[in-house]
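FIELD: query
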Amino acid sequence: MRVEHYFLIRLGRHRREVPMLDVRPAVIFLSELHSDPVRTNWFEEDSRKGLAGRCLLDAVEYLHATPKIPGRFWHVVNAHAIRLVHRCLTDPALNRLHVLDRMKGHIEQTCQQLLKSRQPSVPHYGDDFWDWAAVVNALAEVKGVSASAGRGSRAELDSYRQNVLARMARGGAALSIGDPDREWFGPATAALAYRVLSKHADDGQDVADLLEQLKVQALQPIADGKYLGHDISPLHALWHYGQVVALFSKAETQSQAARLFDFSPLKAPMEQSERVYMLARILQGALAVRNDAAAGEALDRLYKCQNLKRPLGQGLVGETVKGSLNVLDALWPQLSPRDKEAIGVMLDALLEQYAKANTIGFPVAIAHEAEAVQAELLAFGARVAHKADDVTFVEHDALQFRAVICLGKAIGGATGATLALIKEHRARWVIMSGIAGSLGTSVASEGGVQFRGPDKGDVVIAAASAPFQIRRKLREVIENAKVPFNGSTWLMIPSDPNLFRLAHEVAEDMVKDNKEDLGTFYEGLIVTGTGVMDSMDDKKKLLAEFPGGLAVEEEGYMMGIVCLGHGVPYLNIRGISDRAEGDKAVQGRDERREAREQKEAARVAARLAVKAAMLLSQRW
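FIELD: result
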């Protein structure tokens, strides 16, 4: 299935009616994924693939957007999320490795959080040995896509193995930490230890005897509410037995299965989220031993628990994602390749919403600046899908963001273009790209006159913007215009720090890459003036008011004011096309050369702006 993303390019001052592309807020709901009734009408149905798909979307959106706030099950939730997202996306039947590429940053960040939060005493993660095993298992699973996991997983596995080995030598309930209010000790503790060590232990490590001990302990039944001297409630017995039945053979777990498929403990009052945890483990065991009746009963109860109106990332009941992760863990191994392929459509629909919710606006002043931005987008694999007069649609299958390029020259045009980007096209970020005159100066030296500051071919990234005599300009159009912002007088306004940092990273890379043909990039103040510098006297006046000014143009400050007033992050990037020396009517002026220099300056600025947008798009 082809995911369509659009870049909307507006050329000209007169707006014409064009198809509006729906832009969603950052919080995404399941109901918003029904863009195509034929492909998506089953997304909310009560079926295994529907439930598993919703759980996978929860897991992806949890990693992508949900704050990882320390709390109950914090270590376990994060571990399950990275492991299951990695496992599902790498499944050949789903085949969404490009989504995994986008998730690598989130997985790495989560691994860093886990490793930094390692506890000083045993268990080093979570509340008990089961939690610790879950984290060790996850780190080992994702070490190929996370540098932090790659560095830390072996040490964590060795620490876990050594502690389990030492404790099992004591006999009895040695894997209990002795805190019944904190741990969920039982057969699943030994079962998960068996699973992790049998899967991840090095070939050179002799764990055969240890695994046999763990298996014996995992298969030891809970009798009269007791397991190795510890009290186990009938409800928690279901949670433990589901994992035991799923791991070991049907012949070895007959007595556990008989207890597992008795749903009567679920009649007890409990939180809906806890009910989901228990049902997920019953489902896990039932699917493993092909007990269709028990699996159907567990699924029917889970369907009744779910909240289909929840924001994605909040889990089945809209409280915590842990329930969705447990259900996904149970369902995924038993799904058919055809079901997994269908779930890929759900992922594609989620990515479409990401694109709609992450529009980047490019206000530009003149046509060849718009053409430069479009050309750079095409260079990154986009293609023109449709043209209609002053509107050009460009779509891309993998960038996962939408750009809107809107043309508006000088103060009035830039204000209108920026307002259109924010209000009409819902841009979440605005990056202005275009040309400017340098505010550098010619200085006499021993070698002759030298120009100090940004020169032709260089790029200036605005750390801040400032106005120079624009109030006078505005009053020709709007009487008593209040400038600059919110009834106050700001000498200059800062650029968004995050966008500025991204542009800095891109510019550094462009300088390092000899193929990029970038001169020097400067960072500092860009001044918006009343027009071109008509004389050296104008330039001197401007520099007297703003001694640190690097470049002058006609739109950036108004773009910034509009964005600031609407709370939208913004940045101004300018290619230097002339030295702003004034007196454009000098004899011998080469207009063709100037046109070439303007186009080249616009191209370099557009390349930096588009690359910054690409880097920004990797953050969602």
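FIELD: remark
Residues 591-617 form the longest helix (27 residues).
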